[in-house]
Fold each of these.
Amino acid sequence: LFITLIFFTAIAAKATNNADSSIFYLQKAKESKEARRIWDAEKYFQKSIDFNPENEAARLEFANYYCEQRKYNFALQQFNNLLQKNPNHPTALPKILDLSFVLRKWTDVISYAARITAANIKVDKLNYMVAKSHFEEENYGQARKYLLLQIAETPTHKETVTLLGKVYVEMSQYAEAINMYKKTLELNPNDFELLYEIGLLYSAQSNESEAVKYFELAAEKGIKQDLVFLENLGMSYLEFNIPKGVEVLNKVLAKKPGDVEILTQIAQAYYKSENFAVAYDLYSKIFENDNTNVKALYMSGVAMIKKGDKTRGAQICDKAISLDSKLGTLRSQKSVL
């Protein structure tokens, strides 16, 4: 009995010593972290846990340390250890949700969020995180559901409103998307990226005058006027102001000479505005640059016919059809555009 008592006393003493050692090394880890001795801190955190794996404070501190060092997978290991002991751990569960979000583990985010909701744990912007995860998983109906819930809580949260706009875009509900983006603009009228996005949405609805309005506003606010921006701006102008559209697109052609798509769009704009002489010149130029573009040759013939030279125009069309018989079907159409 005496020997047994000594045995258990020794075990208890060892456990106490281990616990004390764990606390000691945890303190050294904190001090090292504050002093920016990173490797020492990590070593002491590990020793603290080695001496007492049940030291919850040490695991939380170690996990937070890993987060600060952006060693997210190591942080997940520490948080998961806590969740194994308490599946609804009020600190570890929200932390692992945040990490899953940062690491773009969208399915995990949705799963952890459901557990957090069931456990009645308060997490800021939880519905937004769930919505973002559904959006990335291309489940736009669920994304919209959670975004509407988040907007009810935080109507001025820019990321929520903007993401809802993107959801509406994916669902081809452009009017709703524009309304969402305009709400976001109320919070920051100088957001040139959002102004540009609204312009793109108006263009998608073939409302080119409104598209140009927002493209120009984006330019005023400082958006980089790269080739993509200029091309979108120029293409929109072509629909109602051809000279201005050509002026803008010439800036693109200066860096992308002979760009077939741009030249074709300009030619079509002149054709639709019944300026057949310019349309003919442009279609001819396109074919000269690329003699495999037989459609351009055919269109130059059509423009020539519309201009009044039916004989020469018909000859050009016949030549194009001889190179590509499929173009013969265009003769029976009212419009070849």
Amino acid sequence: GKKYFSTRLVFLVFFILVCILNWDARYEKPVWDAVGGVFAPAIYLYETGFDFPALLNEPGFPQAGPNVHVYSPITLVTAAVMRLFDGDKELVYLSLHLIQFALTAILLTVVFSLSRSVFGIFTALLITAAVMLFPPFLIQSRYMYMEIGGSLCVILAFSNWVKKNYFWAAIAAIGACVVKSFGLPIVACLALLFMLEKGAKARRFVYILMMVVFGVGVELLRWMQGTNMAPANNTNYIGYLIHQFHSRLMQIPDFYLILLLLIIGGWWYLLKNRGAFKRKFVLGDQEVGDIDVEKRVLLGGILMISAFVGFIGVVPLSGMGFYPLTRYYIWI
């Protein structure tokens, strides 16, 4: 009762704040990747009466075709809104922006709730405000694209794992994979975290299989489809790390510094205190229902951030063209 009312009230407050911050963008047209990645397939579906098989036979991203991100729910929602309003541009743009604002508000509500359980209300408000006003995040909340939806899936996966809601953590991780390929490191991280804990491993193993079958399965569909990415000659991997990975992060030096401190400092702390984490994190000496939230947030957060950044760092080794854009990091 009171808890759900409080959560809904927090969501409403964040939704109003996001709307105020982004209200001037409510009729903005799609730009950049939103045009070719989401609106191209959505328009095709709208104009063909949702002929999905025909869309799968169209050329993809390398040939500037509409067969891009066809499995993403953001694409399907965009097409559905077009159909609902019969292509009326103003109503379509307004509706899609409001959906993005709502997703952003849900994300901020989860961030606030999780932060409050560790730091208390005041610090949680500061953390949530920092996330909301972080420029790459705020900009993405104004776009009709996929980064906010993917970020929401990540924080839901992480938050549910912290609270030991393993099934919903797995569902959220699968959702991240469906939105975009960046869900893969989240699945890998959760699989490791699931197996680190004692007790009921058989059930968590089922959830791991579920994530692999559905999450990795969607990614295999993308690879088999072969239209989302373009092959590239990535022989100069060191050059990629210097001129792409490092140089793009240098465009947001404050965030780059935070990432380095979290990863380097976090791993140093974990290794220094590995004995305590081995005893307490696995919950072997905790009462039933007792959750060491702080240790779970620390260990899970460091692993998830490391996995995500590491994934961006090694993607070029797959032989596919890839640009590590700064907007991707808002997922973590």
Amino acid sequence: PGQEKKDRYYAGVFEHLTPDEQTQIRLVPTFHGYVPKDFPTTLRLLAEQEDRFLFKEHYLGFADYLHALAHSLRLFAIQPPRMPVGPFDFGRLIREELGRFGGFEDAVHGFLNLAFAKRMRALGARLIQVVDWHENQGRDRGWNYGFRLHFPDLPTVGYAPGSISQWYLSATPLPSERKRGMLPDCLKVPGRHLAAAARKRDPKLHVETTGAFRFSKPVQVKTGKTGPLRALVPLSYDLNLANHACRLARSLVSPAAKEKIRLIFKPHPAADPCRIGHLQAEGITVSETWSDRTFPEELAQADTVLGCWTTSLLEAVVAGVPAGI
């Protein structure tokens, strides 16, 4: 919500395309972090850009939604066996997670993406290529599997822009995922290190290095600095991590230095404003600002970037801005 006319993911990519190429591209949005009252405004703003968007909802039918939602019932047919690992039974942990409907929303989006590819095929859509912002979540697997199943000759590309924690196991796909068509034909990453990390569990995975959309030109080093130091603090979508980053950043600014340092907090674009309101209310002892501008806009004016558990730190390094964890 509130980001309908901003390029959250592929910022700047259209600047590198010819007018003819721009007319051939459609962005397929997934609505996340919305409540019903947000949709009328969002749909109105997106409708003003109909030459840039293709809405899955215009093509999906009632049966597609029913099938996706029924996934919650099919889960109860899964009975993981006992899998003892030391004092733990992983089978029991999996059953507990299934009973909590963990990842249910992501799974629903995955089935809807699969259905969307099927509808596109039935309508005779002529596609040149599909690109997925790839984090290898359920929605990504449904997207890739759907288009590889219904458009077997269509090139599929996954763009994985940043490194994720080693505990995020889906960032390093398994050979079985590739063999079953859950992954794109080619995975694009902005760096050799990320390519090696993606192939960790599947050396045969097709990975290529590419650029970063947001920063095709290095940020110029600032000279003749006047005024307080601008420390940009991009926050995680996870509320606990965002709270930790706020407290840590504020603790670094002593009362004597608060006139010399300004903290610029940048909430995650998908974060619910109501959930981060209390974080803003706590900022009464230091000089700080909460920004609704895009990350690239703020980065262009930042003297340093502070944060934790966010790929924004990697983007800051690429842009030539000092970053601290």
